[in-house]
Amino acid sequence: MALHQLLAPLLGLVAGSALRPVVVALAVPAGHPPSVTCPACSPLPPPAGGLQALRLLPPDGRCPACRTPLGAAWLPEVTTAAAFAAVAVGGAAGWYAAAQYWLALLGSALLLIDSAVQRLPNALTLPAAIGTLTLLTVAAAHHEHGSLVRALAAAAAAGVLFTLLALGGMGMGDTKLAVSLSALLGWHSWQAAFLGLVVSFLLAAAVAAYLLVARCGTRKSTLAFGPFLIIGTLAAALITST
Ligand SMILES: [Zn+2]
Predict the structure, then answer these.
(1) 42 C-alpha vs ligand 1 centroid, how far in Å?
(2) Model confidence over 74-92: pLDDT tens digits?
(3) Does residue 18 sit in the same domain as residue 112?
(4) Residue 106 Cα, ligand 1 centroid: separation in angstroms?
(5) pLDDT at 2 over 80
(6) Enzyme group, top EC level (predicted)?
(7) Cys bridge to 200: 66, 91, 136, 232, which one at CB 3.0-4.6 A?
(8) Mean pLDDT of the chain
(9) Using CA atoms, how far apart are residues 30 and 15, in angstroms rounded to an integer?
(10) What's the CA-to-centroid distance between 150 and ligand 1, angstroms?
(11) How confident is the model at residue 66 (pLDDT cuts 50, 70, 90)?
(12) Are residue 45 and residue 121 in the same domain, yes or no?
């Protein structure tokens, strides 16, 4: 195993701890401003809300002052470490790998936020899309193995598909996320882009069926689709990396 494959999960732990205040700040219901105030000891929103969000929080998920739980212990840290480890195992190199790590980082935050409050904030989906397309453009400029035209075509196809699905009730956040993820997989191959979507929909269908059978959900209850898109993309990237 190469050195960078051993270092990737450690880097993920560090990146995940930087991600924790972002996850806490953005995991709020739609229409609410980002906030990392503690409900127990600082009920008032901070005057400069944006800067407050950059404050680091300890990995035990508790308020540093009064120990009230603000989030799950070690969850962003371990999620990001696992995502980085998976990217490292895939073995991509160069700027294409940088694009994968960028999406692994923002995807970890989006997965946790969507699971918690069923939304994919623009504050993360837009940097994810812009960063991915920028890094893939740089990869193309360095003549790395892959195709920018195919990445853009896959992103456009996913954009059209998910915009149509949004008419049927899926969120526009899913559209923006699918554009980034399909661009990344499309850079590699059409098979990867197609597989990513198939795995995402199969996983979501399996979980929805399980919830119906277990009577935890009803036909009307909504299931956050973002986590399935992210896990499906990771699976497709790993399957097609060999
Ligand atoms: Zn507190």
Answers:
(1) 6
(2) 999 999 999 999 999 998 8
(3) no
(4) 27
(5) no
(6) hydrolase
(7) 232
(8) 89
(9) 26
(10) 49
(11) confident
(12) no
Expressed in angstroms and rounded, the spacing between residue 37 Cα and the centre of ligand 1 is 8
CA of 68 relative to ligand 1 center, distance in Å: 5
In whole angstroms, what is the distance from residue 177 CA to residue 124 CA?
9
Tell me whether residue 85 is in a domain: no
6 plus 65 within the same structural domain: yes
**Co-location of 41 and 103 in the same domain:** no
Question: Residue 189 phi/psi, 5° resolution?
Answer: -175, 160
Does residue 154 register a pLDDT over 70? yes
Same-domain status, 32 and 99: no
Ligand 1: centre distance to CA 64 (Å)? 7
Tokens of 171: 């969120």
Distance 69 CA to ligand 1 centre (A): 8
- The residues whose Cβ lies within 5 A of ligand 1, an ion, are 38, 40-41, 63, 65-66, 68
* Whole-number Å distance between alpha carbons of 107 and 180: 10
What range does the domain containing 31 cover? 1-73
Largest Cα–Cα separation, the chain: 54
